[in-house]
Backbone:
């Protein structure tokens, strides 16, 4: 896919001015947050489960080489095949080879962010084996020629009328005056069209939420059932999964399952959790004749042992973006590559380079909500700071940015001068704020105030107030002491 | 080779303070013990657990009725009628479903995997998990997995004796039936009927899988 992360700022201003998008984004804010909160509240063991899952994943990452070999051994024992892919292009090649060998004319796909990461759809299209996305959201955006704007709700940037329009435009074999006013009728239409595709497909490609080393099983967690039809109807099932998806045992997987859906959609359990082990067996009336697992590295091995290792604990639940004020404001496409939101701000520089994606870790208010809700307790803000540091060290941040920082450092080292200047600025802002106590005009910061007001200081600087004998309210003091 | 390239890279990155030997032992230990982690609290008595299972099944937007096994055909016929569906059902050869073959009460029974045209299917669950009202179904020669997904109406029978508190209890069933480290080819955990919220976050039932899921809970 075309990378637009370098123009994150322009993408964002576009997004802020897009009324359709802004309308759609409201659903993210209201829906996901509330549902997650009540699901979490209803399970007193939630936090203990988080800790348990974190320690399992840390153990896996420290022994990933051994677990991957164990997984491969068990897939093979059950008659499946494992393919190791160091890069995106290795993985694409392996998938194409399988499709060509079995003479595939039609390929269906379950939802998979890894397939986005390796650009699989474009590649298969160019190789004359166009894949059909079967997850409803993915199907809609595929019709529109778009990419997912959210890792679990790919079409969350769209409103119903946009979906209706697209169906009217693309499903030309159906009567033009058919009833499509309700979401139910849209769903029914897509269901009918995709039913035929499932039956015709020669190869089904799915992702995996987990890979179980103990049994060689791959797992998909879904609500629609499309993943199951994708993998059980065609004669070949290809699973594409990244190496960190390993969990040791069935018991370990159960810990993750309990926090995944609650964090993602706020369900206690997704509708379908399916464990697949090898191809169909003797006497089985259904299931694929061939079972392949592509294990994708794509730079992940290089994150182990670095300050970004913790990111490999991510279970792709989407909670961090659901709770992110930046994501709420600009949506997923503005991030300019596959992974949006806070997790994307950490992963994107890793995959496409900090020179391309340096804006993303900077687009954070560091409010810390992402880390607070992340079921895997990934220190997302800290990792964004690591990227900022790297960006600064590599002299990638803009000259004006660097100049201002140096100026500030110079000033901060001279306390007297610093106090005088901040007092002047505070006074100036107070004047600017007037009765409203906020301003929509800031010299040199027009871009910032274009979309929001700045509250103005209502007294002297902190030091001035402290010297006047002012002290924080009791509650804050107590809190500080307790800490 | 790509495989050794990835594995070597991992070895080079992984914390060198732990020897390969120690790591191998830690992994072997974890795999053989498959220790249980944190488990959600459960009601103390069996009856309460069965009630909680029923509650959770309903919360998942499925329906449930308690019947006696010998009334299965009648329950299915009535269910189909109440949804204006023809008296036809697709099912596998599972012994536990045989009861409706022996006493079909006018039901038309179709064998084997679904051709995609069936309106209703009938399966037997191996376990029902109390914590989320989840049904566990194992595929096999007599239990086609596609019956769980293709027909619009899925009826699942389960015995009260197979109701277990946690997912972990299902793994015990799996290990005792298939052996250590062995699995059925497909294991489906099913919690309610298929759904999607991809259009404006509106929850709609019956995305690609069943629109309705009906559970027949038997005491025997
Ligand atoms: S970073 Fe955490 S919250 Fe975000 S998708 Fe990954 S696991 Fe979920």
Residues:
């Amino acid at each position: 896919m075309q990378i637009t992360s370098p123009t994150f700022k322009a993408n964002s201003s576009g997004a802020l001015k897009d009324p359709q998008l802004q309308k759609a984004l409201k659903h993210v804010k209201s829906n996901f947050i509330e549902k997650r909160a009540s699901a979490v509240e209803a399970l007193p063991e939630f936090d203990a489960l988080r800790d348990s899952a974190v320690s399992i994943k840390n153990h896996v990452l420290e022994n990933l080489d051994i677990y991957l070999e164990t997984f491969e051994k068990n897939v093979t024992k059950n008659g499946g095949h494992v393919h190791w892919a160091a890069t995106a292009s290795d993985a694409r090649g392996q998938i194409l080879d399988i499709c060509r060998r079995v003479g595939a004319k039609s390929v269906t796909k379950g939802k998979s962010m890894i397939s986005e990461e390796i650009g699989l759809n474009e590649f298969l299209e160019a190789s004359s084996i166009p894949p059909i996305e079967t997850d409803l959201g993915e199907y809609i955006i595929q019709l529109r020629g778009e990419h997912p704007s959210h890792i679990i709700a790919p079409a969350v940037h769209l409103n119903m009328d946009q979906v209706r329009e697209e169906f009217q435009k693309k499903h030309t074999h159906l009567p033009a005056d058919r009833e499509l006013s309700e979401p139910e009728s849209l769903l029914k239409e897509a269901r009918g069209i995709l039913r035929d595709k499932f039956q015709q497909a020669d190869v089904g490609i799915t992702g995996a939420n987990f890979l179980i080393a103990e049994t060689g099983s791959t797992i998909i967690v879904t609500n629609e059932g499309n993943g199951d039809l994708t993998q059980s109807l065609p004669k070949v099932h290809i699973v594409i999964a990244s190496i960190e998806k390993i969990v040791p045992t069935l018991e370990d997987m159960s810990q993750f399952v309990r926090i995944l859906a609650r964090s993602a959609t706020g369900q206690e359990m997704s509708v379908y959790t399916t464990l697949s082990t090898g191809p169909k067996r003797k006497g089985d009336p259904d299931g694929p004749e061939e079972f392949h697992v592509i294990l994708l590295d794509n730079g992940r091995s290089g994150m182990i042992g670095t300050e970004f290792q913790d990111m490999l604990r991510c279970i792709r639940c989407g909670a961090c973006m659901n709770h992110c004020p930046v994501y709420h404001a600009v949506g997923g496409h503005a991030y300019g590559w596959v992974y949006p939101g806070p997790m994307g701000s950490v992963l994107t520089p890793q995959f496409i380079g900090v020179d391309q994606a340096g804006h993303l870790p900077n687009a954070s208010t560091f409010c810390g909500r992402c880390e607070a809700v992340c079921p895997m307790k990934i220190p997302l803000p800290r990792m964004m700071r690591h990227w900022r540091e790297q960006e600064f060290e590599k002299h990638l941040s803009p000259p004006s940015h660097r100049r201002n920082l140096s100026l500030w450092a110079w000033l901060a080292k001279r306390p007297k001068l610093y106090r005088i200047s901040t007092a002047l600025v505070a006074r100036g802002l107070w004047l600017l704020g007037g009765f409203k106590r906020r301003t929509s005009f800031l010299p040199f910061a027009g871009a910032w105030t274009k979309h929001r007001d700045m509250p103005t200081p209502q007294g002297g600087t902190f030091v001035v107030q402290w010297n006047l004998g002012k002290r924080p309210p009791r509650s804050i003091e107590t809190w500080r002491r307790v800490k | 080779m790509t495989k050794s390239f990835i594995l070597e890279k991992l070895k080079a990155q992984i914390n060198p303070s732990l020897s390969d030997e120690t790591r191998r032992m830690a992994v072997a230990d974890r795999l053989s013990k498959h220790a249980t982690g944190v488990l959600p609290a459960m009601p103390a008595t069996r009856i309460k657990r069965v009630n909680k299972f029923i509650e959770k099944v309903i919360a998942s937007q499925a329906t449930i009725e308690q019947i006696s096994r010998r009334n299965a055909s009648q329950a299915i016929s009535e269910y189909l009628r109440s949804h204006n569906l023809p008296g036809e059902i697709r099912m596998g050869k599972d012994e536990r479903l045989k009861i409706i073959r022996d006493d079909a009460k006018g039901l038309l029974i179709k064998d084997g995997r679904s051709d995609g045209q069936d309106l209703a299917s009938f399966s037997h669950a191996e376990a029902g998990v109390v914590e989320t009202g989840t049904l566990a179904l194992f595929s096999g020669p007599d239990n086609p997995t596609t019956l769980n997904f293709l027909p619009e109406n899925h009826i699942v029978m389960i015995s009260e004796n197979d109701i277990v508190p946690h997912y972990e209890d299902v793994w015990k069933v799996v290990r005792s039936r298939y052996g250590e480290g062995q699995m059925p080819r497909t294991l489906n955990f099913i919690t309610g009927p298929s759904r999607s919220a991809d259009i404006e976050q509106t929850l709609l039932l019956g995305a690609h899988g069943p629109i309705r899921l009906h559970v027949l809970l038997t005491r025997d």
In short: Helices of chain B lie at 2-13, 20-33, 46-59, 72-82, 98-102, 167-178. Residues 11 and 185 of chain B are 32 Å apart (CA to CA). Residues 45-218 of chain B form a domain with the Rossmann fold fold (CATH 3.40.50.10420).
